[in-house]
Amino acid sequence: MAVSIALRPVQPEDAAFLYRVYAGTREEELSRLSWDAAQKDAFLRMQFDAQHRYYQKQFPDAAYQVIRVNDCPAGRLYVDRNPDEVRIIDIALLPEYRGQGIGTTLLRSLLEEAGRANKPVRIHVEQANPALRLYRRLGFAVVADRGIYVLMEWSPDGIPEGEDQVKIAS
Known about the structure:
By secondary structure, this protein is an alpha+beta fold. The protein contains four helices and seven strands, in the order E-H-H-E-E-E-H-E-H-E-E. The model is unreliable at about 160-170 (pLDDT under 50).
């Protein structure tokens, strides 16, 4: 079965889904804590709300999108396109959609877009994030170490060679 990947703008009614995506990115980290479910939920909600406010303040003109796979909500992609760069603010998938090439497809699409515009693509990534390998495989390099995060950059003169041009429906 062919996988259909589409993006659509975030709507106010997506808040619960977006929280679920965020919580899914923190599962492993929180599994090591002895907190009960209510404590973890309270912490995650506080962190999610703080992150959301930060993103909205720092990147007011960004594209905040829900990733849909076969017409089902699967994740989020937040991208700020400005004159100097394409900044991936956040890309996250629900656990059940990871490891299927969806992130790779979306990233290749962004790299193709940036390559046509001759702009670099930048993203901050936690140093322990398994997706670091994916970014390196796609040609990103670490350009700054910011403690638990690294700033990675892809340069347009190194467009990864994919099997074919990637088209994402929006």
